[in-house]
Amino acid sequence: MCLCTSGTQKLQAREQAIPSVQSNLTQKPQVTFIELGSLKCVPCRQMQPVLRAIESKYGTQVKVIFYNVWSDKDRHYGNEYAIRIIPTQIFLDNLGKEFFRHEGFFPETEIDKLLQKQGLIPLSNK
User: Fold this and answer.
1) Which CATH number is 100's domain given?
2) Per the structure, how many domains does the chain have?
3) Greater confidence, 53 or 1?
4) What does the pLDDT look like over 94-122, one tens digit per residue?
5) What DSSP assignment string belongs to the chain?
6) Which residues constitute the domain of residue 77?
7) What is the pTM of this model?
């Protein structure tokens, strides 16, 4: 796991929004999945394919957001969500209330269990 640091580290990475598989943005997501990490952190980079897979698998049921907390632009999200280490995953319900938090690499199979427990249904078995 990478330790979240602040201060003088200047990294050139920027917020990376995971591309949407479905263009129907009119449906409000049931869950917002926020990944707080860095593009320079190995476990954070390992989470990138997991984020894409979850978005693909659940479509508009889940909104996936990645914040690069080592960038000047997104550093404040680390403080806002009071993270201790990166990567940290935060799951919000459709009202924006946090219902689950995880620190470190989070396997796709475990995220599937969490989302299905919230009533989400995979669109496919990707």
Assistant:
1) 3.40.30.10
2) 1
3) 53
4) 999 999 999 999 999 999 999 999 999 99
5) -EEP--SS--------PPPPS----SSPPSEEEEEEE-TTSHHHHHHHHHHHHHHHHHGGGEEEEEEETTSTTTHHHHHHTT-SEESEEEEE-TTS-EEEEEES---HHHHHHHHHHTT---SS--
6) 28-117
7) 0.78
